[in-house]
Write a structure and sequence with these properties.
This protein is an all-alpha fold and 382 residues long. Helix content is 64%, strand content 0%. The protein has helices at 2-9, 12-15, 22-25, 43-68, 83-91, 97-107, 111-124, 129-155, 158-161, 177-196, 206-225, 229-254, 258-295, 300-333. Helix 13 (258-295) runs antiparallel to helix 14 (300-333). The two termini are 35 Å apart.
């Protein structure tokens, strides 16, 4: 039964080009290696290591940096203990008018007093600016490091300069150590985000981000399994590039360097446009959609992959519209706009304007993958 299910999930006729089998990819020529699905499992224990490394980084590096910048943890004001209101809060953090009226009659409290209690209670769960700073500093460090590694690998790779090289002799293309390390590092990072999603700053797009991370993990795993690594490395590199500036803008915002924050956000907007609306569609997607058809020919999974890439491009357009609105305000008003999405509470006067989810972004991470932009929130794009 289990074998039949696995055979159906990993059907060669779906995932691989015609006349290619999984066994073919298990028998590379002497001196060469092809991707093997079991090797990608190394990403799971490595994800635990990445998660632990993040904990150490935030405690030993990011937190001291925050203290040097005088970003304090702060102690939020505590709401007055009240069993009735707490029970309602657990199911509805922002009660509607009808609920407020019912609570007012039940407790003989003024509605404004009840609203004030809920506002304090919501803010009680808000993460401190220092915690946000530490999270963003970790992501900034990872994106910067992995992007530098990817560029060093891709710079000497012929498919970076001629994308048709992604498809010559596909899928019988040798696996390099640089490709393997890059793929495993990215996959481990997104698995670690899955772990940490439940302890990180909880944002309104929590469910969307879970879906985003799962989709990103699926795409990375899928492209590794059927040896679409050359195109995959290009996709991941393009998405990581702009995230560096977004996380840097967040760091500047938390440190109250407003001009630097505004400037970095504008740079992020420009880099997002160049990488996601120019390079990605006209270089990467074109190669996967057109060049692969001409050289390797389509197969069933080819339609799935291209469909997902085009959906991602649609999201890029939507996200850029939202990002551009914020960037224009930063240019003409001198300050990044307020955000109504980033954190769990919804105080309209304490957040920075955004979109996503990531990505989302927030939704795509990505890496998102994801990923819209807001200096006080998260990004999601991959």
């Amino acid at each position: 039964m289990t074998s039949s299910i696995l055979d159906w999930i990993w059907s060669e006729s779906f995932w691989l080009p015609q006349n290619v089998t999984w066994a073919d990819l298990e028998r590379p020529p002497p001196g060469e290696e092809y991707p093997r699905m079991r090797d990608i499992l190394y990403a799971l224990p490595l994800a635990v290591c990445v998660f632990l490394l993040r904990m150490l980084f935030e405690r030993l590096v990011a937190k001291p940096c925050a203290q040097i910048l005088q970003i304090q943890a702060g102690v939020p004001r505590q709401a007055q203990p009240n069993a009735v209101l707490e029970k309602v809060f657990q199911s509805k953090a922002c009660p509607d008018t009808r609920t407020l009226e019912g609570l007012s009659k039940q407790m003989d409290w003024d509605e404004r007093k009840i609203q004030r209690w809920f506002r304090v209670r919501r803010n009680q769960d808000r993460p401190s600016v220092q915690k946000k700073f530490c999270e963003s500093m970790w992501r900034f460090t990872f994106y910067l490091g992995i992007f530098i590694y990817a560029i060093r690998h891709l710079w000497v790779s012929p498919w970076m300069w001629d994308t048709r090289e992604c498809w010559y002799n596909y899928p019988f293309q040798p696996l390099s150590a640089g490709q393997f390390n890059y793929y495993v590092a990215e996959l481990a990072f997104y698995w670690s985000l899955m772990f940490s999603q439940f302890i990180d700053i909880k944002r309104k797009d929590f469910i969307i981000m879970i879906v985003h991370h799962l989709a990103t993990i699926f795409l990375i795993t899928f492209s590794y399994a059927n040896n679409m690594l050359r195109a995959g490395t290009l996709v991941m590199c393009v998405h990581d590039a702009s995230d560096i500036f977004l996380e840097a803008a967040k760091l500047a915002n938390y440190a109250k360097y407003q001009r630097l924050c505004d400037g970095l956000f504008v740079v992020f907007s420009i880099s997002f446009f160049i990488t996601r609306l120019v390079i990605y569609p006209f270089w990467v997607v074109y190669s996967v959609l057109v060049e692969s058809w001409e050289i390797a020919g389509p197969y069933q999974a080819w339609w799935l992959l291209n469909g997902l890439l085009l959906v991602l491009q649609t999201l890029h357009i939507i996200w850029f519209y939202l990002i551009a609105r914020i960037a224009i305000k930063a240019i003409f008003k001198g300050k990044v706009a307020k955000d109504d999405r980033s954190d769990i509470e919804s105080s309209s006067d304490e957040e920075i304007d955004s979109s996503s989810g990531k990505n989302p972004i927030q939704t795509l991470n990505p890496k998102d993958n994801n990923h819209t932009g807001n200096p006080n929130g998260d990004t999601h794009d991959h």
